[in-house]
Amino acid sequence: MPALAMALLTSCIEAPASRDTPSLLDAHGEGARIISQEWQLLFWIGTAIVLLISALLIAILIRHLRTPREVAADPRETVGVRWIWLGGIALPAVILVFTFFSTVRGSGALSAPPNPETVTINITGHRWWWEVQYPDAGITTANQLYVPVGQSVRIHLESDDVIHSFWVPQLHFKRDLIPGQPNSTWLQADEPGVYRGICSEFCGVQHAQMMFMVVALEPDRYQAWIENEGRSAVAPEDDVARAGQQVFLSSACIYCHTIRGTPAAGETGPDLTHLASRQTIAAGALENNIGNLGGWIMDPQHIKPGSAMPATPLNGDELQALLAYLTTLK
Question: Is the dihedral of CA 312, 317, 323, 324 positive or negative?
Answer without folding.
Answer: negative
